Amino acid sequence: MARKFDPQVPEWIETRAKAGAPTARRLERDMTKVNDRVALVLVAVVGSMWCAYVFAGLALVALPSAMGGGILPLIQWLSQTFIQLVMLSVIMVGQNIQGRTADQRAEATYQDATAILAYAEQILQHVERQDETLSTMQGKTLKIESSMGTVLDKTLSMEANLAAVLDRTLKIEAGLAKG
Question: Could you give the angle at the alpha carbon of 90 between the alpha carbons of 86 and 94, nearest 5°?
Fold first, then answer.
C-alpha cells in the first residue's frame, strides 16, 4: 500500500496568523525604548511639510544678507541653508509617503499569502479525500485480483478436466471404430 502524504505545517504559520501582518504602526506601538520614541517624534515633526515651510521661512530671513555679498554668498546660502533645510524635510515627507505605500503593499502581500495558504489547505483536504478514495479502490482491486486468481485456477482445472474427458472420448471412439 502506498504511503499517505503527511504534511507538516511550520509553527511560524500559526504564530503569524495569530499576530497578523507586521506594520510600521504596530512596530511603533510596541517600541519600549525612550530613545526610539524620541527619534520617532523628531522624524514625524521634521518629516512634515509644515516643518519644510518653517525652514523655508527661516532660510528666507538670511536671503537679504546673502544677496548683498555677491554671487559666492548667494550660492552658499542656496546650497548650505535653503537646500539643506528645506529639502531635508521634503525628502523625509517623500520617504514617509513611500513607507506608507510600502506598508500597504506589504499588507496586501500578506493578505495574498494568507489567501494562498487557505487555498493550499483546501487543496490538501481534497488530496486527503482522494487518498482515502484511492486506498478504498486499491483494496477493492486487490480483492478482485484475488478473486480473479481463484477463478483462473478453477478455469484451468476445468480445462484440464475437459481435456482429460476429450482424451477419453477420443480413445473410446477410436476403440469403437476398430471393433
Answer: 170
